[in-house]
């Protein structure tokens, strides 16, 4: 065990910081470990003679990635959130072995139970001697949401323990093998055998083939080789995986599965120079791995299987789709519609320049494009290792499509017009539909909360993504005039929406200078103390504009009733800021979706209680100004 004091201090500091933040993170990894490895390699290089000795090679071998595993405890934390309570638990290595720690909303930490006492309670079921910690063979450790029950798997058996009484018992729950993909009702499972896809009856063990035409390099639902990161581990003997990117329908009647075509991909040798089996002779593994620049790559084609009729239908996506997506966190099948008997597939093209959602008619296999987005360079819906930020809502009534492009490009007037012009050109090429011109920030206001929280823009080498390759010469804003609006209109044909208008006079001037929309906003109340709020300024601006351009409102939207008030006072729509960030911090894309769902549900409820069957029936009589 590494006992370097600096590493341990950083580890504890990061763990403490993690528990205080209250945000949902999939994993927290310690970067100091890599830095230690690099510095260690440098030290070896400096002290080694020109002719390395066996001891030198042994020292270098100890720095190989597999040999570093387990040298630092708790370098990664995986939080498990407890319902909507704001609490979570995680597993860590303590002084007495593994333990589960519960973190409260305010960051207080406590062990879920005494691991030594729980080990003694488990001993009759596991047949292991009760030591100072939980048995090392326990897997799939977990807690119930009420924190009263601990459960785990031991050699294929599920065990459950009452935390208060320390009584444990074997649960009547079978643990499926890792190569099985169970149906929703738990009666059947899919698996691959050879190069084909099979269905197994979990009650009788009987199997029948869904496909019989699989062959080497043209297989059904077998995980292909992608890169050196995964190739060798996949070649080694180990637990098999469930069918690759394969999905059951909710009623268990349909299956969508891919056929993987690697025939056009050239073989690539991977040399295992030091086989762990003890051989001194390197082992060469021949695998099919596409390399950058190859014209031939791995191809995938999705098929729909009707298990009731035995029908198999190829899903004909438009040309260019689908690109083989990896890892499987990017789920090609977004979901299903029971009522309409439809499935929805998310796919993208090679190079990630286009992405689309396709609707599949389960009765015919017909494919229809629901929506599609394209970019001149590339775009992503999500961090590479995370699920996509696209969600199917309800029974397929709506799709939440979270893109990195809103369709509007928000522009501040930077030190020179040349910078603004270059950004607008990029926005046009990226397909933006309007310029949102922020005019209420000639200088930064005195943001005392930011000062208390230590909010600063990091110094170089940090560079904001929009300004890579652009000389900013500091963040010196300058006063915006109506001449700047005229200049914007002269260099772009995109509609211009001005954000930061608070008076009827400015609204009329904006119309005179040809704007297409106005956002009534006081910049979230962060610029000028005692400034009028957006909701207060909204009525006079709507009256002055008199329908000649669209009027939106920004600021203070926290509930659905806030949206209703703004619409009643004449806003075409509202902009939501902080609640979106709060949702993002708590649960990523799902958190943002949840915030929007809350606002929409609250708005619909408020409309019903106010006697408004639709948006057009909302009027000013709903609001009494005081």
Q: Give the strand content.
A: 25-35%
Put simply, the count of helices is 13
CATH homology superfamily of the domain at 408-622: Aldolase class I
The rounded distance between the terminal residues' Cα atoms is 68 Å
CATH architecture of the domain at 408-622: Alpha-Beta Barrel
Please give a structural write-up.
The chain has 626 residues and is an alpha+beta fold. Among the domains are: 1-78, no CATH class; 408-622, TIM Barrel. It contains 13 helices and 33 strands. The strands form nine sheets. A six-stranded parallel β-sheet has the order 28-29-30-31-32-33. Strands 15, 16, 17, 20 and 21 form a five-stranded antiparallel β-sheet that branches. A four-stranded antiparallel β-sheet has the order 3-4-5-6, with no helix packed on it. Helix 10 (504-512) packs across helix 11 and helix 12 crosses helix 13. The radius of gyration is 30 Å and the shape is globular. Mean pLDDT is 80; it is low at 1-49.
């Amino acid at each position: 065990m590494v006992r370097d004091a600096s590493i341990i201090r950083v580890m504890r500091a990061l763990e403490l910081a993690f528990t205080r933040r209250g945000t949902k993170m999939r994993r927290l990894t310690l970067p100091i470990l890599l830095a230690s490895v690099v510095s260690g390699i440098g030290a070896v290089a400096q002290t080694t003679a020109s002719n390395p000795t066996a001891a030198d090679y042994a020292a270098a071998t100890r720095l190989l990635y597999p040999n570093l595993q387990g040298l630092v405890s708790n370098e990664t934390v995986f939080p498990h959130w407890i319902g909507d309570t704001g609490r979570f638990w995680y597993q860590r290595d303590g002084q007495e072995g593994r333990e589960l720690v519960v973190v409260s909303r305010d960051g207080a930490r406590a062990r879920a139970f005494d691991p030594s006492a729980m080990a003694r309670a488990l001993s009759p079921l596991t047949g292991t001697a009760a030591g100072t910690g939980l048995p090392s063979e326990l897997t799939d450790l977990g807690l119930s949401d009420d924190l009263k029950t601990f459960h785990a798997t031991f050699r294929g058996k599920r065990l459950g323990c009452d935390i208060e009484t320390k009584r444990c018992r074997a649960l009547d729950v079978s643990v499926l093998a890792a190569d099985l993909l169970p149906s929703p009702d738990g009666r059947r499972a899919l698996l691959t055998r050879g190069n084909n896809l099979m269905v197994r009856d979990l009650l009788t063990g009987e199997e029948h083939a869904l496909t019989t035409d699989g062959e080497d390099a043209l297989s059904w639902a077998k995980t292909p080789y992608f890169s050196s990161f995964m190739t060798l581990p996949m070649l080694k003997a180990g637990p098999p995986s469930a069918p690759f990117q394969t999905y059951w329908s909710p009623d268990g009647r349909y299956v969508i599965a891919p056929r993987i075509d690697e025939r056009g991909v050239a073989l690539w040798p991977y040399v295992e120079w030091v086989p762990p089996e003890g051989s001194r002779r390197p082992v060469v593994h021949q695998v099919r791995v596409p390399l950058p620049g190859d014209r031939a790559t791995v191809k995938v084609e999705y098929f729909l299987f009707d298990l009731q009729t035995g029908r198999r239908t190829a899903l004909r996506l438009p040309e260019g789709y689908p690109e083989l997506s990896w890892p499987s966190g990017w789920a090609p099948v977004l979901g299903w519609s029971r009522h309409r008997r439809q499935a929805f597939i998310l796919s993208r093209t090679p190079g990630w320049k286009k992405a689309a959602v396709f609707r599949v008619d389960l009765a015919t296999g017909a494919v229809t494009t629901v929506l599609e987005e394209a970019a001149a360079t590339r775009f992503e819906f999500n961090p590479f290792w995370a699920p996509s930020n696209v969600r199917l809502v309800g029974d397929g009534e709506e799709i939440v499509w979270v893109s990195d492009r809103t369709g509007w490009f928000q522009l501040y007037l930077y030190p020179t017009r040349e910078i603004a012009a270059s950004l607008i050109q990029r926005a046009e090429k990226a397909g933006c539909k309007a310029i949102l011109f922020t005019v209420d920030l000639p200088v930064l206001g005195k943001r005392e909360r930011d000062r208390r929280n230590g909010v600063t823009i990091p110094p170089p080498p940090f560079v904001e993504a929009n300004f890579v390759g652009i000389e900013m010469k500091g963040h010196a804003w300058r006063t915006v005039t109506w001449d700047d609006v005229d200049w914007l209109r002269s260099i772009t044909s995109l509609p211009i929406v001005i954000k930061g208008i608070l008076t009827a006079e400015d609204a009329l001037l904006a119309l005179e200078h040809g704007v297409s929309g106005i956002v009534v906003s006081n910049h979230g109340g962060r610029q000028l103390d005692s400034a009028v709020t957006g909701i207060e300024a909204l009525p006079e601006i709507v009256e002055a504009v008199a329908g000649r351009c669209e009027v939106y409102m920004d600021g203070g939207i926290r509930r659905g009733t806030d949206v209703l008030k703004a619409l009643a006072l004449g806003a075409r729509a509202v902009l939501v800021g902080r609640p979106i960030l709060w949702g993002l911090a708590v649960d990523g894309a799902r958190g943002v979706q949840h915030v929007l769902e809350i606002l929409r549900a609250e708005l619909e409820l408020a409309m019903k209680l106010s006697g408004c069957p639709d948006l057009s029936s909302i009027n000013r009589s709903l609001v009494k100004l005081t």
